[in-house]
Design a protein that fits this description.
polysaccharide binding, ATL20-22-like, alpha+beta, transmembrane helix, zinc, four-stranded antiparallel beta sheet, EC 2.3.2.27, 32% helix, single chain
Length: 269
């Protein structure tokens, strides 16, 4: 009975572990949306061990978003390449330069995918004609104009510098939907093999990940071993009880015979 109880409890534990790990399978926020797998995880829909800290994604209206603490708003994830460890993002407000101005990637596991170059943002009271100054319409207004310029150029009197940042301005491609996007990349030591084989993986410790298929095979092996041990234990217990019963029967028979013998040889008074 104890062996059966152990087997049931052990089986339940394995099923719970496998069910928990199975939540780390690949997901999508909608049809045509990027495939989400380790090191990314869907916040609120998957367990924390399914992804690495800092790689949380959010599903809203069948669209994939990635939040950044330093930026006021989530960015749309257009695509994810696990081979090149890169992702293409879009600003829902269609103003990627606002992202460049406010996004601080030093607090994240990401960095810009394309080559960076320093640019200075200018706030000008009048429109500039020179081709050396690129106006940013989404940041400009009716009474002021925002431009980007290389820091080495002299500033016009009607302009004041706002901020100089390193951005992939010349290298960010125009995506298929004609939105000016930006690409990010990541480096995560210890996850190369897990990501390369395309398996369903998750966070095991600070430097590695578990492989769901491998863990299931390992769990099945332990389960079979436990069943064999339990079966052998039950057989031994049954055999031991059977021998004990046979010994008791033999003892009872001997006692009974001795009783009969005593009655025969007992002298009459």
């Amino acid at each position: 009975m104890d062996a059966f109880l152990f087997l049931i409890l052990f089986s339940s534990t394995l099923l719970s572990i496998n069910a928990s790990e199975d939540t780390c399978t690949m997901m999508q926020c909608g049809d045509g949306a990027p495939k989400i797998q380790f090191p990314f995880q869907v916040k609120g829909l998957q367990l924390q061990h399914c992804g690495h800290p800092g790689f949380e994604l959010v599903c809203k209206d069948n669209t994939t978003f990635i939040p950044f603490p330093s930026y006021n708003g989530d960015l749309v994830v257009k695509s994810i390449s696990y081979h090149t460890k890169s992702l293409s993002l879009l600003d829902p407000k269609n103003c990627v330069h606002e992202v460049f101005l406010n996004l601080n990637l030093s607090l994240t596991p990401f960095h810009y995918y394309h080559v960076l170059k320093n640019y200075t943002y200018l706030n000008c009271s009048s429109r500039l004609i020179s081709s050396s100054f690129s106006e940013i319409p989404c940041l400009s207004g009716s009474k002021y104009h925002v431009y980007t310029v290389e820091p080495s150029l002299a500033l016009p009197n009607s302009c004041r510098p706002v901020k100089t940042v390193a951005i992939p301005f010349q290298y960010s491609p125009y995506l298929a939907d004609n939105s000016f996007g930006l690409g990010l990349s990541w480096d995560l030591p210890g996850s190369e093999d897990c990501e390369a084989n395309g398996s369903h993986c998750g966070l095991k410790d600070k430097t590695g990940c578990f492989n769901l298929a491998h863990d299931i095979v390992f769990s099945i092996g332990i389960f079979i071993f436990a069943m064999v041990v339990a079966t052998v234990t039950i057989i031994r217990i049954y055999h031991s009880k059977k021998i004990h019963c046979q010994d008791e029967e033999k003892y009872s028979a001997v006692v009974e015979k001795l009783g009969d013998y005593n009655q025969i040889v007992k002298p009459s008074k």
